[in-house]
Design brief:
The complex is a heterotetramer.
Chain A lengths: L1 H23 L3 H21 L3 H26 L14 H21 L14 H9 L3 H31 L1
Chain C lengths: L2 H25 L8 H25 L5 E13 L3 E11 L1 H24 L6 H20 L3 H19 L6 H32 L4 H9 L8 H18 L8 H4 L5 H10 L1 H11 L6 H24 L3 H22 L2 H35 L16 H4 L1 H15 L5 H20 L3 H25 L6 H4 L7 H13 L16 H5 L16 H35 L5 H8 L1 H7 L4 H73 L6 H18 L4
Antiparallel strand pairs in C: 1-2
Helix pairs in contact in C: 1-2, 1-4, 2-3, 2-4, 3-4, 3-10, 3-14, 3-20, 4-5, 5-6, 6-8, 8-11, 8-12, 10-14, 11-13, 11-14, 12-13, 12-18, 12-24, 13-14, 13-17, 13-18, 14-16, 14-17, 14-20, 16-18, 16-20, 17-18, 17-22, 18-22
Chain D lengths: L9 H4 L3 H21 L3 H25 L5 H31 L13
The chains are: A mainly alpha, B mainly alpha, C mainly alpha, D mainly alpha.
Chain lengths: 170, 339, 690, 114
């Protein structure tokens, strides 16, 4: 249990600090790489919550897919061969105050609410359960998600292709 | 195994660290050996001898000497680079690669982490290497590096799809993601190995092997570091030990995909002869021999095949490997359903 | 061999053609010989499998029904409706295993024939791919155990029929025919769908067995027998469309625009028989009234087909109308309750009609090549007036064609005699029990006409002198790959395969394995009971046999008298019958009728509604507009003075507020997000519970 | 295996549901901050990813600490799937915007305004 506590605080701090870096880094590439640690920390938190499959999915999709895409996006849309990749901000002060108040309210609400915790929800393995649920009760969402991914893929390809043909015609 | 260690050590954290460091004992000597082997194999394929002098017998300590040289080299960081990311990238790369060794069952008794999602975990955690390459390429502030890095990551991300689907074929056949269970299922003689399980799994292995070649940037898919086009790819600006870390990662990655391939298709730590020569220690032997065999095949291919062009590279992935992999996955599933 | 093995074989039969289709459609052009061997080989394998299934099933488990199913969608206990679960699965009973062999055999032989016939076609591999998907869907209809899959496969055969009719879609007539077939079929299928849905709403399942069982314990749709009759007739609508029954028969003759082997496979032997198969499958739920409707539709179709076939000159059109007529025969047989006879006729008809079509294909092939050689592109290679005297040039085709013609005419020692005789006996028995003597009367009439027009076709095509001496030397017998199927079909048209007694099928194996299924409908609306009917048929049997031989002989004699020996001049005959002849020659004006009624009707309706729209609705609108204008003139004055005062005041007020609010409308997404979150926080405090 | 945790208060020594919820609240707020303050579209996108992660942490935490069975895991998986689709589309849009306006700052892409 004590190791658990140790790991929890380590990964919680990793998540929160790297999230701060994401938001406050002046350099967008630093923000993107800090995002990797946030995702990593969140994945570790999932592991601590007995969600091994979701954790690995988080790594595979977020770190291996989305983040690479984001970094590609950054590198394709910013002046490339210069380390200076600062991004501007808007109304930083009122926004910070506003979000701080929001965070305060959320944390307050989370701590005062009686959640009716059931502490012994420990899963031995989730893979089998998730698989079974996916093809039974969640079959429709899964099919819809599949169609959605297909649509997204075709849409992204279409847009990228249009961009290319436009730049070729120029 | 961690429990055994805990009994002898003063602190459970120490036991954890030692347990986690065990694969290092295999990986580091392996890399030294593999670099030497690569030089010897390439030399013999070109009808020469390769390093012969250092150490005595066939220049066996050449890589050790190289390593010492590398550690002593000046640590050069380009002045206009992003210093922090530049220094950090090699470590991140090795971290991603080493983390994957945690779920490789080296023998029936030793596995770093007995995860239920082992196969999946390997595929997920190696994607960190992609990011570290992007990081290195960008932080170098050099166009060759950046182009090389973007090529590499595009390549790795693309080839991840056929790899995942090929691994999925095995998972469909075995019904588990746990690499230890997959290994145990193949115990017995050579005919219990999954590659002989069905013709489609054999195709899956071929797909896996091709796309894993691309994932670890080996010839014929070594465009990201093609010296003639991109100087050195993402590690153009690196030198000394940091460069060494990248080399270490690359060789560790080769080892990793070879080991994963042998776990998934070639019985893992099982002896091909049934009970003969089997047991926990023999398991390590078999595992490493199988891995080394694939590494030898990779070296062999490197000196046999020419390099692909970049559009051909993407064609091979998207137009051939991925459709074939998906069709094959369906066929594997049908085979499992029918038989 | 256990039932599991049989089910597994059936699954192979079902899915192998699909595999063939996928391979051929994607890689067909790259395969050696464009993959014709693949399609044919797969069908050969399925033929072997289906023969194995047939023998094992009939010899080892003649009385059992094998079902293998799984639950596809389980909606659980739906409120107000009850438990709904949709199962998919396959069923092997005697009906389906016999049908499997029929489909596999015809399909395989047609594949084989096509290798010769379609040689050099531009879309050769695609043709075989389409044949593959057709076989897949047809097998699906045959082996399925529920209405849902049946409906899906039903539409799939419709699709493949569409694709194959339009195979030469460069020809306007071919693509039109494909569309016509598709649309006409859709009308019937809509009815079938409604029928299935009536059953589904009532029983919450699509599975045949469950529906039959529920019916047997007294559950009926909406508590009324009339609904059950309606469901039966609506499902029969599907058969009307697919089996080209009156009044939806018009698509079948046009479908002859497709390649001739396709006509043999789809539009003669298998797909059109699917309608008959459907009636056989659902026979148990048909009420007496529904069967009466089926009987009369069948009779009308048989008569219409026969009448039109007499005067046609296109070799394939004659065969097409003969198919319509024979399908009407089968439907009529099932309607009267002669279940076994009807299905038996389906089986025998499949082989000799497929053979006839393939024979005509062989003739057209030869004619086409001869015309091609002379660079003659005006003469129609399908018109029997351009043929004649082919007997010497194409002996195998002629001999097989003769056997088929004898079989379809119902001459003893052929398979057609066996089945036709049983049907005629059935109609007599039916009339004896119910008093509907019109049915056997027309049935015998059709038998005579069939013999006449089939021999007319045979004589005009093969006997006498060739129409154009100069091209006679260019006509050759077709290659072996085309004649072998003909020979196989010809041998299957002999009585010996069905019953050792050439004068009665009832003692053969077929009658011992095909029993009329027990009707599950409520007693009040039951059709004629099986045993009463059997008795009546037995009494009428000998009489029917003698009469049918006599009538067939009369028809054949008449045909020889008119066309071979020319004792009676055909032209005079047609002049003498005058209006009747032109009625028949113009296909009873069905197409024109539909053009005048359905199509013009729709257009007329559209015109009427347009007029209604333009005059009445617009009139009302315009009238009210005038009224409104008058009223608004008045209110305008009121407006200008009183209201505007208020409005201007409020406008100033709004403008003032707007000036304030404009600050918030920045056009930046982020500001909006802040507002959204801010509102959420406010809601949070409003609805808080602590 | 014993540590001197006596002086640490109980609520800190045992991470429970609230701890995870607090982390998710912080992640959510930071994500929101990124969304509303950053001018770069890609930064906004990263903020959205943070918000989605916060939601996912909640789902998983509730699965662990309540009788939600595995439904929370599945919903988290679907969220990840949606995030993947969203990122692909969003970046395609961003690249198009860049092609069109030569900038990816949200406040400069304002052709629709006025």
């Amino acid at each position: 249990m004590d190791l658990y506590v140790l790991f929890f605080y380590f990964f919680a701090l990793l998540t929160v600090i790297s999230a701060f870096v994401v938001v406050f880094a002046r350099n967008i590439v630093h923000a993107a790489f800090a995002l990797m640690f946030t995702f990593f920390g969140v994945a570790a938190l999932y592991v601590l919550l007995y969600a091994d499959f979701v954790a690995v999915t988080q790594l595979l999709v977020y770190v291996g897919g989305i983040l690479v895409l984001i970094i590609f996006g950054v590198m394709l849309t910013t002046r490339m061969f210069s380390v200076e990749m600062k991004t501007g901000t808007l109304n930083i002060l009122p926004a910070t105050i506003f979000t701080a108040i929001l965070a305060g309210i959320l944390i307050f609400v989370f701590s005062v609410t009686d959640w009716g915790v059931v502490p012994d929800q420990e899963f031995d393995t989730t893979v089998y359960g998730i698989g079974t649920l996916l093809v039974n009760e969640f079959i429709l969402p899964m099919q819809v998600a599949g169609v959605l991914l297909l649509v997204a893929m075709i849409g992204a390809v279409m847009m990228a292709a249009r961009e290319r043909s436009k730049s070729q015609s120029k | 195994m961690v429990e055994t260690l805990e009994q002898f050590l003063p602190h459970p954290l120490l036991a954890l660290f030692i347990h986690a460091a065990l694969p290092m004992v295999i990986v580091f000597p392996y890399v030294l050996f593999a670099v030497w082997l690569e030089r010897k194999v390439s030399a013999h394929m070109q009808d020469r001898l390769g390093p012969m002098r250092t150490g005595g017998w066939h220049g066996w300590s050449q890589t050790i000497a190289d390593m010492i040289k590398m550690i002593q080299k000046e640590d050069i960081v380009p002045s206009r680079s992003d210093k922090f990311l530049f220094k950090f990238a090699p470590f991140l790369a090795f971290m991603g690669s080493y983390a994957a060794f945690a779920v490789i069952p080296f023998s029936s008794e030793y596995i770093g982490a007995h995860l239920d999602v082992g196969a999946f975990y390997i595929l997920a955690v190696t994607s960190i290497v992609t990011l570290s390459i992007l990081m290195a390429g960008w932080a170098s502030n050099n166009k060759w590096s950046l182009l090389g890095a973007m090529r590499t990551s595009a390549q790795i991300v693309s080839y991840e799809i056929p790899t995942v689907v090929a691994v999925l074929s095995v998972i469909v056949a075995t019904g588990t993601l746990n690499l230890m269970t997959i290994s145990e299922m193949q115990s017995g003689t050579i005919f219990n190995w999954l590659i002989f399980h069905s013709p489609f799994l054999f195709i899956a292995f071929v797909l896996y092997f091709i796309s894993s070649l691309a994932e670890v940037n080996r010839t014929p898919f070594d465009l990201p570091e093609s010296e003639s086009e991109l100087v050195g790819g993402f590690h153009t600006e690196y030198s000394g030990m940091r460069w060494g870390m990248f080399m270490l990662t690359e060789y560790a990655d080769m080892f990793l995909v070879s080991l994963l391939g042998s776990v998934l298709f070639f019985g893992g730590w099982n002896s091909p002869f049934g009970d003969f020569m089997s047991g926990p220690i023999w398991g390590v032997f078999w595992m490493i021999s199988k891995g080394m065999f694939f590494i030898f095949v990779m070296m062999w291919l490197r000196w046999t095949l020419p390099r692909l062009r970049v559009d051909q590279l993407m064609d091979v992935c998207w137009k051939y490997l991925i459709p074939f992999a998906f069709v094959n996955l369906v066929l594997v599933a049908l085979w499992e359903m029918i038989f | 061999m256990t039932s599991d093995t049989l089910i597994q074989l059936a699954l192979y039969i079902l899915f192998l053609p699909l595999l063939g289709f996928l391979v051929l459609i994607f890689f067909g052009k790259r395969l050696p010989r464009h993959g014709d061997w693949l399609g044919t080989g797969i069908l050969g394998v399925t033929l072997i499998f289906s023969l194995i299934i047939l023998f094992v099933k009939l010899f080892s488990y003649p009385a059992e029904t094998f079902i293998s199913q799984f639950t596809w969608i389980d909606l659980g206990n739906v409120p107000f409706i009850g438990p709904i679960s949709i199962e998919l699965g396959i069923m092997l009973d005697n009906l389906s295993v016999i049908m499997l062999v029929v489909v596999a055999l015809v399909s395989f032989l047609v594949h084989l024939f096509s290798i010769g016939y379609m040689q050099g076609d531009v879309r050769y591999s695609r043709y075989f791919a389409y044949l593959g998907i057709f076989s897949f869907s047809m097998y699906g209809i045959v082996v399925t155990h529920n209405f849902l899959m049946m409906y899906i496969f039903w539409e799939l055969v419709g699709l493949s029929s569409y694709l194959l009719i339009g195979h030469w879609y460069e020809k306007k007539s071919a693509s039109n025919a494909a569309m016509k077939a598709f649309i006409v079929n859709r009308i019937g299928d809509a009815g079938m769908f409604i029928g299935i849905m009536i059953l589904f709403v009532t029983f919450s399942t699509f599975t045949f067995e469950k529906i039959f069982d529920s019916l047997a314990i007294g559950m009926i749709p909406f508590g009324s027998e009339a609904w059950l009759t309606a469901a039966g007739i609506l499902i029969f609508c599907g058969a009307i469309g697919k089996s080209a029954q009156f009044p939806l028969h018009v698509w079948l003759p046009d479908a002859m625009e497709g390649p001739t082997p396709v006509s043999a496979l789809i539009h003669a032997a298998t797909m059109v028989a699917a309608g008959v198969f459907l009636i056989a499958r659902t026979f148990a739920i048909m009420t007496g009234d529904a069967l009466m409707v089926i009987t009369y539709i069948g009779v009308i179709t048989a008569v219409i087909g026969a009448i039109i076939a007499i005067t046609q000159y296109d070799i394939k059109k004659v065969l097409a109308y003969s198919t319509i007529s024979q399908l009407g025969y089968m439907v009529m047989a099932l309607g009267t309750g002669a279940f076994t006879a009807g299905f038996f006729h389906l089986v025998t008809h499949a082989s000799f009609k497929a053979g006839l079509f393939l024979g005509s294909g062989s003739v057209i092939h030869a004619m086409h090549h001869a015309l091609h050689k002379k660079n003659d592109h005006h003469t129609d290679p399908q018109d029997i007036r351009n043929m004649g005297g082919l007997k010497k040039k194409m002996p195998i085709t002629y001999l097989t064609f003769l056997i088929f013609t004898l079989a379809i005419s119902g001459v003893p020692f052929t398979s057609g005699f066996l089945s036709k005789d049983e049907i005629l006996a059935g109609t007599l028995g039916f009339a004896g029990v119910t008093g509907h003597y019109l049915v056997p009367l027309l049935a015998f009439l059709v038998a005579g006409m069939t013999a006449f027009y089939m021999f007319r076709l045979l004589i005009l095509t093969f006997h006498g002198e060739h129409a154009d001496k100069s091209r006679e030397s260019d006509i050759h017998e077709s290659p072996a790959v085309m004649t072998i199927p003909l020979i196989v079909f010809a041998s299957l048209s002999i009585w010996i395969f069905y019953s050792f007694n050439p004068f009665g099928a009832a003692s053969g194996w077929f009658y011992s394995v095909m029993e009329r299924p027990l009707s599950v409908v409520p007693a009040a609306v039951q059709p004629v009971a099986a045993d009463v009917f059997k008795e009546a048929v037995h009494d009428a049997h000998t009489f029917a046999m003698i009469l049918s031989i006599l009538i067939a002989g009369l028809g054949i004699l008449f045909a020889f008298a008119v066309y071979h020996y020319r004792k009676i001049d055909a032209d005079n005959l047609s002049k003498a019958t005058g209006p009747l002849y032109s009625l028949s020659y113009n296909k009873l004006y069905f197409d024109e009728m539909y053009d005048k009624s359905a199509i013009r009707g729709t257009l007329g309706l559209a015109k009427i509604s347009a007029w209604f729209d333009n005059t009445i609705i617009d009139g009302i609108v315009n009238g009210s507009a005038t009224l409104t204008r008058l009223w608004s003139n008045f209110s305008g004055r009121f407006d200008n003075v009183v209201i505007d005062g208020f409005v201007n005041l409020s406008a100033y007020f709004t403008g003032f507020i707007g000036l304030l609010l404009r600050k918030f409308q920045t056009g930046k997404v982020q500001t909006y997000i802040v507002f959204v979150i801010f509102s959420i926080i406010i809601f949070f405090f409003i609805f808080r519970s602590w | 295996m014993t540590y001197s945790l006596a002086q640490i208060p109980q609520w800190l020594a045992e991470p429970g549901l609230e701890h995870f919820l607090v982390i998710s609240a912080i992640l959510f707020s930071l994500g929101l901050l990124a969304v509303i303050t950053r001018r770069n579209v890609i930064m906004v996108l990263m903020g959205i990813e943070l918000i989605l992660n916060a939601a996912n942490v909640n789902f998983i935490a509730f699965t662990r600490f309540s009788t939600l069975s595995l439904d929370g895991h599945l919903i988290a998986l679907f969220v990840i799937i949606l995030a993947a689709a969203e990122a692909a589309i969003a970046l395609a849009i961003v690249l198009n915007i860049y092609q069109q306006f030569h900038t990816v700052n949200v406040d400069e892409v304002s052709t629709l305004r006025e």
